[in-house]
Fold this protein.
Amino acid sequence: MGFGYMGKVLRVNLADGSFSEQDVDPGMAQNYIGGAGFISRTLYDEVPAKTDPLGPENRLIFMTGPVTGTRFPTSGRFTVGTKSPLTGIMVTSTSSGFWGVELKKTGFDGIIFEGRSEKPVYLEIAGEGPKLKDASDLWGKDAYETQTVLKERLGKKRARVACIGSAGEKQLPIACVMNDDGRAAGRGGVGAVMGSKNLKAIACLGTQKIEVAADEWLLAMVKEINKAVAEDPFAGFFTKWGTAFSMDMGWAAGDVPVKNWRQGTWNGGEGFTKIGGARMADTILKPHGGACYNCPIRCARWVEIKEGRFSYEGPGPEYETLGAFGSMLLIDDLEAISWIGEMCNKAGMDTISAGCTIAWAMEAYEKGALTKADTGGIELNWGNVDAVLEVVDLMGKGEGFGALLAQGSRAASRKVGKGSEEYAIQVKGLEVPMHDPRCYFSLAVNYATGMRGACHVQGGSYVVEMALINPEAGLTYKQGRHDKRNKGLAAKVSQDMANVVNSLAICMFAGMALPPSAMGMLLGLTAGLGHNAQTILQTGERITNIQRAFAVREGISRKDDVLPKRLITPLPDGGAAGKAADLEYQLGEYYPLRGWDENGIPTRERLAILGLADIADDLGV
């Protein structure tokens, strides 16, 4: 293939150290685009049901998209996919920065890893082609150190490294893949699978040019989008305060979780503002050229804490980290939360799952399901910064009480028992992110049916209730956040469009504003592919159904499309006081829209329409 794609995918057999290349099939490009779409189809085809996620038969796939590395704003993204050791189903996890662009410039659109190396290795792709090299001296180094060392070996500042830290080496189910300082493919344990394969890092240094089909027309489109971004006040919030502004602006509506989702307020709002984006900008934010590749929004934070026990300079916390280690744990010390996020980055550990699992443990400790004998003497009281510092350190090392928590809240609560399962706020094993379905009702069905578990970005349906409409997809008006009807439609469209965005490999902040017809135009300008609004919508739905089919093979059905009781129980206070979504009603909307039966299984009729008759045969529907 000539435009948008480099035309090759690298296969690496870690068991015997061999390489092979496969051409990007034009049919795959048309029907699955790239990124999450390529990964989803490949995982379904190559990872049989009941495969051990940490076994050599599992696949670990890194994939760019046809827009990666082009002029289009936010085109620095890539996707990592595998069968998750945290959930047991498929996970696709995205990251940004520059690594994906550098991979693509080596001449490969993606990499598929299989097998397991007998010793630690890293993959280097540079001028002489791909090479597996001994990583014994890197094993034990944190994610930052690993990136620094390998960049020095390649001898160019623009060299880029994706790697794991100690959490991935220990194969902990909440481990990330880290790149470009503190950016992460964060959710679902992709770093644990990388560690299970004894793969420490992938270092890239490319020289090839990324060609597009219609550069002048693409440039014209880019100018219009950049102008719109510059004039959009919402984008301006991200530029000025980063995603952390959601802490300042979301709490009044009841969107920010407090004390493991048990409270709607926190010190009259003062707790939120003490750790929000405005406070960060006024205190520790440092001007820094740390934006992702070709991004006009520049939401990434760089902070400097000049003195004290939390002194450091580096990536600052995003909203999810502030929520997970701040409001969820009742910690209102911004410098402490920043440092805890830095600890997680170095260990390569998902801050959402880590913070939420500690919140479970604090509640279990409060209610007697855990004692000091269980915690190794750590007093897990709400707001106890020293306790959290100790626990996060143990989690990253997979030691002591931290080894239990690093399994995630579902596994930890099942092991502890004593009613503590009620305090584990997760869906299908994935901890719920920092947006409350009692605030935005569409998040109830979106979380319950999420293809990788509870997720706000692979189906950000709450934006439909905030401002965004999508008439081409049937979302013709701004929904009230506590409306009863049409939440199933909001979730379905959001999930499908997220899969398209993650297949193009662009940022959700730019992609969610594009109507399907504009996505089709973008594919034409970059890759020369013929798409319109209808085929884009169908492509997103096709990818979603493959992900659901993978889950169905693992035993997932309507019984698993549930929320923790706490999230459908109204709070007594806060901006969503007295409100809770009717999940059963929402599922009653959602399943027919999806073309799934009453048990949540895709029907043969819908799969056939999507060109997935082979999957219908496989599922026996």
Notes: The longest helix spans residues 533-553.
